[in-house]
Amino acid sequence: MDVLTTLTIIFLLYSLYLLYKSYKLKCSRNCYLVDYVCFKPSPDRQITTRKCGEIIERNKNLGLAEYKFLLKVIVNSGIGERTYGPRNIIEGREESPTLDDAIEEMDEFLNVCIHDLFVKTKISPRDVDVLVVNISTFCPAPSLASRIVHRYNMRDDVKTYSLSSMGCSATLVAIDVVQNIFKSGKKSLAVVITSESISPNWYSGNDKSMMLGNCLFRCGGSAMLLTNDPAMQAQAKMRLKCLVRTHIGANDDAFNSAVQKEDDMGRVGVHLSKDLPKAAMRAFTENLKRLLPKILPYREIALIAFHIVKQKLVQPNAKLNKVVAQINFKSGVDHFCLHTGGTAVIDAVRQALRLSEFDVEPARMTLHRWGNTSASSIWYVLGYMEAKKRLKKKDRVLMISFGSGFKCNSCLWEVTRDLGDGDVWEDCIKEYPPKTIVNPYLDKYGWVNEETEETFNREERIEAFKNSPW
Amino acid sequence: MANEPLPPFSSSVRLKYVKLGYQYLVNHILTFILIPIIVGISIELARVGPDEILSLVRFLNDLDLIYVMSTLFLVIIVGTVYFMSRPRPVYLVDYACFRPKPNFRVPFSTFLEHARLVPQFDERTVRFQVKILERSGLGEETCLPPANHYIPPTCSMAAARSEAELVIFSAIDELLNKTGMRPKNIDILIVNCSLFSPTPSLSAMIVNKYKLRSNILSFNLSGMGCSAGLISLDLARDLLQAHGNSNALVVSTEIITPNYYLGKERAMLLPNCLFRMGAAAVLLSNCRRERSRAKYRLTHVVRTHKGADDAAYRCVFQEQDSEGLTGINLSKDLMAIAGDALKSNITTMGPLVLPASEQLLFLFSLIARKVFKAKWKPYIPDFRLAFEHFCIHAGGRAVIDELQKNLQLSDQHVEASRMALHRFGNTSSSSLWYELNYIESKGRMKKGDRVWMIGFGSGFKCNSAVWKCLKTIKTPVDGPWSTSIHRYPVDVPAVVKVL
């Protein structure tokens, strides 16, 4: 029956077409990082240790104990002489920041960085389908996402999301949003903007637990372009393999380890409790438990399982420390992008994962050159690796970051082509790693240890400081 | 958007019936085509006689088993692939709104008295605020948080946190009770609160209070204005497409405490008069087993962002006045911009929801105007054919009036919005849920009804969501309206004299 044959053929062709469509859909579910740009503020915003000392000395609320504490933190922080701060703090207006100061700080970043991203990737702002902005401690109305839509004249059907208060790990939360939108299969271009607002968040009180933020946070930011379009695969730098998010807010100590609140005098600051390192480790462990099965090769997983079973049979009640000590984390990961929360964080992660100094060098150097730029720090670390030409095709890069709440987010990228773009590290990569990153002012501020409450005279000290040859 | 409908056509009674007939014809076109085909085939079969049919059946029987099996196999594979690649349905299992206690009430007399006692306000400022309140469409039972009852209001972070805990936790407690959902079964958490964003975030606060799982996907949206609730729904929908068998908790609120404006700039005093305390918690799911008890299914979400336009971007703007006090400046062009944003939104929404008859009319009108340069006014599709209920963000009386005019809605269509504004004030992103609850409490929600939620927000955004009701909601409904629904609707006068 001719009719029947024709009908069958038509039906077959249609079924093949449906299968092809669903295959194409599956291919469009990958998340590619096309390119990223880190922000380099202008040189007049550089903060040296001397500048930090000046800023601390300006604060009339500080006594000797706080002074000592802060100077100790600064000289031991691992932060170098070329990090950047917001204008209002450099100009001496840190105690009374205005809304305009905060907006100006953001504008300097948004106007430069995103523009550079579009130029670099040759994408027009009107091609952007999704815009995710995460700037933790500043959320004006209209949102900064709207500010970007306005500034770059984006389309009216652009999907914007403005994430806030999610801490230093928020950039991976933003990537999670984009990744989930991409899974619908529709070809889209997404821009993720990550930064932190320092100007409105200066703590002017004398509660020690709230002063750390003042010393460690610096200005920075990054803009990323992501897509799920397989046609852009050749241009892309990396492909996202997996993303794991862990939130241990259910634990009260972890939740209260970093809380923004008023001190006894009513000044707002972020209180960092002594439980913070413990909370971080706990969150990190939880995260690793879910991450490792996804990133380690099968052989390694089988080996770990074998050791666990062996231990359980021999010593059922013993802890699994010995087994953990035998895990080779580097079998599944070639490069580590650690959040530059501080030397303590880097050292703790290094110890936990048994990494070499070479592995954590990008993070340490980023902390030295840029300070703790909060959520965008991991992109500076990635930039260092790229500038040092460490990233080759098929390499796997693990990003780990921590955030208040307490969260630990991590993701694994696969490099899709050999990378060598210096970006913001271009001008200084040859100087890294330097022979020493010990703070040159360690000697200069050593006098603090000789003073007592009686001998400490603020005004005298400031005069002497101003007249010093430094 | 000052476009008027085509008066000569719809005002004539005879033509109205022509229009009705046309709509019926176009919307049921498939039925009208199928009937003659079926009649034709039956006549043909009757004529041919039973023998031919039997020979056809015998032919099919003679076919190779392999042929039949492979065809069947192919049908099953393609069918499975097709069904698996379809988008997952998003069900609204239930929702709960914060029920403010009567002791938080701010009747007009309280507002006036407090405003006079606040040292920062002079008589001129007080008069202005009261004048706004008189014309606002708000009633005497709207509520402000405890901190705003102090004179002057205490705007500390601690007070803001306690307001957040009060409104959010009570809404979530009620939702969890109603649905019997265990906190450990929540996979996704999205919180939106525009003007208060502490560290750790409000989403972390919820994770801590309810001991949610450590692999929860939590998101905290901020600064996105009064339409942020719909943005959260959009995000939840995208997440539920990517993760199967999941439950999502969406919390929409606005924290009033830190945003009370104590200055003299008029445009910035408006929010003091309009914004009130409120919160809503919504449970969404894509689990098939929730289908039987779900109330609604989300069919569409359309988002429009007019930020590229200068006037639109600046019409709701947070800034500092000359004294350094921060407040939200509402521009005079707000209504016009809202109308324009709505027009863009319905341009996208129209083809998704309008019946074929309206789309064809719109198409003809468009062709005539653009191709043949006819001097017709643009045809505004009749959205009453696409939706039974409308939830318009209760931003203020002017917003509701403007939308009623633009969409040609009757008073009953906008009743939910007006009454929610009267009873609860402008609760920002949660207002849509108070309005939905009003419609349910009035016993108007039937199975199959479609609801259109429209929200506006700073930026300027216009977002809308379309829900389809899955089961008739029986009264009495336990919700924020349970103590007051019997008194509604009320007639809200244009001006309520206070001074």
From TrEMBL, chain A:
Keywords: Acyltransferase, Transferase. One of its GO terms (cellular component) is membrane. Its EC number is 2.3.1.-. Residues 331-414 form the Beta-ketoacyl-[acyl-carrier-protein] synthase III C-terminal domain. GO terms for molecular function: acyltransferase activity, transferring groups other than amino-acyl groups. It comes from the Eukaryota. GO terms for biological process: fatty acid biosynthetic process. Residues 26-313 form the FAE domain. The active site is at residues 168, 247, 335, 339, 368, 372. InterPro entries: 3-ktacl-CoA_syn, ACP_syn_III_C, FAE1_typ3_polyketide_synth, Thiolase-like. Pathway: Lipid metabolism; fatty acid biosynthesis. Belongs to the thiolase-like superfamily. Chalcone/stilbene synthases family. This is 3-ketoacyl-CoA synthase. It comes from Rhynchospora pubera. The lineage of its organism: Eukaryota, Viridiplantae, Streptophyta, Embryophyta, Tracheophyta.
TrEMBL record, chain B:
The active site is at residues 226, 305, 389, 393, 422, 426. Residues 388-468 form the Beta-ketoacyl-[acyl-carrier-protein] synthase III C-terminal domain. Keywords: Acyltransferase, Membrane, Transferase, Transmembrane, Transmembrane helix. InterPro entries: 3-ktacl-CoA_syn (IPR012392), ACP_syn_III_C (IPR013747), FAE1_typ3_polyketide_synth (IPR013601), Thiolase-like (IPR016039). The keyword Transcription regulation does not apply. It is found in: Membrane. GO terms for cellular component: membrane. Its EC number is 2.3.1.-. The chain crosses the membrane at residues 24-45, 65-84. It is an enzyme of class 2 (transferase). Its main location: membrane. It catalyses: a very-long-chain acyl-CoA + malonyl-CoA + H(+) = a very-long-chain 3-oxoacyl-CoA + CO2 + CoA. This is 3-ketoacyl-CoA synthase. It comes from Rhynchospora pubera. The lineage of its organism: Eukaryota, Viridiplantae, Streptophyta, Embryophyta, Tracheophyta.
